[in-house]
Automatic annotation (TrEMBL), chains A, B, C, D, E, F:
<keyword id="KW-0808">Transferase</keyword>
<dbReference type="GO" id="GO:0009022">
    <property type="term" value="F:tRNA nucleotidyltransferase activity"/>
</dbReference>
<keyword id="KW-0698">rRNA processing</keyword>
<dbReference type="InterPro" id="IPR020568">
    <property type="entry name" value="Ribosomal_Su5_D2-typ_SF"/>
</dbReference>
<dbReference type="GO" id="GO:0000049">
    <property type="term" value="F:tRNA binding"/>
</dbReference>
<dbReference type="InterPro" id="IPR050080">
    <property type="entry name" value="RNase_PH"/>
</dbReference>
<dbReference type="GO" id="GO:0031125">
    <property type="term" value="P:rRNA 3'-end processing"/>
</dbReference>
<keyword id="KW-0548">Nucleotidyltransferase</keyword>
<dbReference type="GO" id="GO:0008033">
    <property type="term" value="P:tRNA processing"/>
</dbReference>
<dbReference type="InterPro" id="IPR001247">
    <property type="entry name" value="ExoRNase_PH_dom1"/>
</dbReference>
<dbReference type="GO" id="GO:0000175">
    <property type="term" value="F:3'-5'-RNA exonuclease activity"/>
</dbReference>
<dbReference type="InterPro" id="IPR027408">
    <property type="entry name" value="PNPase/RNase_PH_dom_sf"/>
</dbReference>
<protein>
    <recommendedName>
        <fullName>Ribonuclease PH</fullName>
        <ecNumber>2.7.7.56</ecNumber>
    </recommendedName>
</protein>
<dbReference type="InterPro" id="IPR036345">
    <property type="entry name" value="ExoRNase_PH_dom2_sf"/>
</dbReference>
<keyword id="KW-0694">RNA-binding</keyword>
<feature type="domain" description="Exoribonuclease phosphorolytic">
    <location>
        <begin position="10"/>
        <end position="140"/>
    </location>
</feature>
<comment type="subunit">
    <text>Homohexameric ring arranged as a trimer of dimers.</text>
</comment>
Length: 238, 238, 238, 238, 238, 238
């Protein structure tokens, strides 16, 4: 029934390529099927001004999409001179999601900048970005532990994200573009390895949906994230 | 236990003042306790370019906050030369929420612009804005029916919104600023009069929260929205 | 003869509502008939950089208009990404007008930010804003005296403003929108309680006007401001 | 008493160099002492959108200052990415002043763009710009008459401008920078050849000033403008 | 002597991966050693306004760099709200270089947009981008011929580019970052397959250089481009 | 054969007017025929942040064009809110060219800002600007020596620039607008008094050009610059 032939609760082919970047302290090329996102983590030995003197650090994220990552070309945000509301919404979400599994006191007064750049888009770029960013962030933080700058990894849990939606009346896991563009409802779930909820964003695309539908989506997401956190660990060798 | 002395499932004092504006086709000053938002609806007899020739119309929204609506002054976005990511996120949410209860084909090729301006902020400005905008939009659409420009009201349901959160370990309804700033989790629910879900945005503020907690918040929201849609009807005399 | 039925030298219904804002150190909702402006005064314990080390303070002002304050909707400046020339002109005028009755040495190295937001516009928004800002500023400065931060009120006089114009050949006081949009000449006068001139801006709208016409406008303004400063004192209870 | 040794009612050395630009339809390098402004007039055979179909034309103006036109370097507005409030105020004033002596119906649906660029600034740049722009505009309009595009010159009067101020207690004409920077009051007068008032902008710089002082300034301005319009005619050979 | 151990006239390892993008009409991931640039070509069936009615088409280019393509992170241009002068210089160069080998009349009134995004930067990004863009452009144009939209390929020659420089006193071909950052002179050559010069940009980095030095650089470039155009043909199978 | 009647290797009428500006530390109005550029040099006793603590100074340049410097009016960059790519390219070139003949260590931690404003444009504005800026810079630096702030002039050579091109098949020196707009190739050469190359920018305008053509252009440029540096010395009296 799904355009891709997947079963209702089947993820796309998921691949993590940690250490993709030659220069970044942490990086991961993550692919959810045809959606490819390059995530890098850059360590800055200075916290943002609002944290000065608090002993705490920060994780921030930026998100971008190459102009021809999509079916038809999208205007380059740098050329337009501003980021769209969608871009800003996504990069705020990525930052919040990662901070939810951080102990920012242990990180200390430094900042990790996450950059998520969509090389190719086939639905679910924000959830792909969050899932890959965890890997890039883990790498960067590990490097601080290896260099004895930090005594322990300042992470409290794993985090991953996946989209679900109501497609032709059925709850399905991990929407691709063909499904996403016609889904009746679309939800993004950011969940932790131990089962906590970090963020839920559920949106009716055509008409309001019911609570039972919503519960079905949440259940699918839980299953999907369980697979994703396993793959993250495998990619990181932990 | 709540700073305001309210019970866990008690809304603030809610007031709708429809027809507040001398000029707008629809308007409502809405107050959720100390949060005051002026919502206006402006009818434009021209749909946005991407709908040209489709026979469908559009609802769009903008959101702003007076610089001293808050405890400490916030920079004026017009002076800074751009809207923050938060503002863009909120105005996109308001537009989506209202469109979810519209039949845009019946509206025809015209656009309604909703403006939500926060005169005073004490938590929950986005949910207050959605709830009041429904009233302003209803007024504007009614005026089109009264003038025989439309044969029927192009709305399929009522819509209202409320925030809930985990405050000192307890699920509470309709957070004010004192609660919002220290809540463990914060969720905004946009629901319809007939029980449908339009949008859910739930965010862990400090650490991930559990599914049972989430369900408690959804239940509170359902109760709150039932009250709000009743008050909307009363304000509109329908 | 006037659309509103007022006599040539009659002000509109003038109302001051000091302390309108829950948060601001000083505030006043001021209404000149259908023109409603919310003025707030925010105290900052830091002077602008160009005054550093001089012992003097500063008063600055910003001005905005809600998009649907007007008959037809005006684009939101924050969304357009810049303030219009008109807005900048007005906010510079408000700042200069208030500074003209200040002793900035007595104020010391701090800054008062005035925000004037037009909730509804029916002509004369800039003069209304100046007249109401005086009240908000007075409140804010009084609070500094009450807290013993200042030994005395750093004001040297009262200031108020009013517009006059040539309407259908007659000099009239306090133009509303119906008059303003067809007036032959339009002038804004900012005058002090003791009779000084702070600012005069007189503009021929259609064709140049004569010196005697100008003198008639100035005389009307003097009468109007005398009433306004009385109402300011009454509102402030001084 | 004046730093320049001029008498109280003496203009600076005034020079008009019409036809300064090789390309513009009208142009004038105008010098008021050390203040040098290049004014050009460009004819566009298309009125601005808001006049489409009205049969009327428009005059608009832009103003700029070379970065090192001043004692210390001023940031280049093109590099800063926006025009200051002062610049916008001045260019709006220039446009209004010229339109006040135009019959825009006779001009027809075309637009004249005036550009005033300050090559060197020594006080009074806005009044110098208005006075020189009249000459550039006259040239451009004459060329339309010569080419039989217009049957008659669409001007109803001459216009010129001059600043006056209270300097060390005395009303003086045509302030230079040394006077302007310490004057107690500063006023710009835009007057017509036949004695009409186009615009008055009077500002108290330190403390409010009196009505008699203001009248003295207006009288000086009248004398100054009478000289300036004579020099304009001489420069244009009319 | 070179940090990479290459001989003075040796190119880096050059790789072309045509058809890299799933969506673009033409694309090529091009790698000059550690410099990796994704080039895509997007066909638009509309020429830019200035060519309307001329029967001619256009090639335009945009250039960007991922924030962590470099040793230390570079600010994202979309976040800063504008493109740097360097970016604009490079994208203008890419567009000119490709147009130099086009017959824009044969292309007809359509536009090809080239996007060059640097995934990893190790010197020579602009020359790498030009060389890869030729391949992407060729693919896109071939698709128009295959679909019988064009009768023939509207290209008159091949084009490729390479940098050369004076490094520790020696002319060297194809600078990598280690060389580029300390070179005495740096030159970019855009040359055609048949030996024509399209663009030369030579810059003294520390002190002026001599004509003989310049000629040595040009000779090296000629040799390098001969290799590059051969590799382009091989990648395209032509 | 040339529109101006000049011989192939003949410069236009070249004039330097040093000390043109009343305020700038160095200035020169330079004219290459109908191209007139006002160059000023402003001394700032503070180096840019990236040089702090290095003991070195900096030369930076900005470039602008009056809106009606050209045949048809060009939009004012300050009004458009950003500088074009062309402007940025030119101002970067001017800065690099001047720095190439500076000993920035001797200059010490200060910055000279060069402003080049085109009053009238008839081709070759960037080369004219470089040639005139040298004179303005020399004046400013001399003033530092005269005041004993510097012990010696921190310049290592003279620098001047000229454009050459292939016009109707012939290499010609110093293109004016009539030639520039139809030339087959266009090259800008920045050369030093002692024969060094500072910068070469050569561009094929229609189709690629040959190496012999390029060499002919370089030879012409050498001759032209020899004349220009002589005129610079004469203007400076050195």
């Amino acid at each position: 029934m799904r355009p891709s032939g997947r079963s209702l609760s089947q993820l796309r082919d998921i691949r993590f390529e940690p250490g993709f970047s030659k220069y970044a302290e942490g990086s991961c090329m993550v692919r959810f099927g045809g959606t490819h996102v390059l995530c890098t983590a850059t360590i800055e030995e200075k916290a943002p001004p609002f944290l000065k003197g608090t002993g705490s650090g920060w994780i921030t994220a930026e998100y971008g999409m190459l102009p021809r990552a999509t079916h038809t070309r999208t205007d380059r945000e740098a050329a337009r001179g501003k980021q769209t509301g969608r871009t800003q919404e996504i990069q705020r979400l990525i930052g919040r999601s990662l901070r939810a599994v951080m102990d920012l006191k242990i990180l200390g007064e430094r900042q990790i900048r996450i950059d998520c750049d969509v090389i190719q888009a086939d639905g679910g770029t924000r959830t792909t970005a969050i899932t890959g960013s965890y890997v890039a962030l883990y790498q960067a933080l590990s490097s601080l532990v290896e260099k004895d700058i930090l005594k322990q990894l300042p992470m409290t849990d794993q985090v991953a994200a996946v989209s679900c939606g109501i497609y032709e009346g059925h709850p399905v896991l991990d929407l691709d573009y063909a499904e996403d563009s016609t889904a009746e409802a679309d939800a993004n779930f950011v969940l932790t390895g131990r089962g906590g909820i970090v963020e839920i964003q559920a949106t009716a695309e055509k008409s309001p949906f019911s609570e039972p539908d919503f519960h079905a989506l949440l259940e699918l997401a839980r299953e999907g994230v369980d697979v994703l956190v396993g793959l993250q660990r495998k990619a990181l060798g932990i």
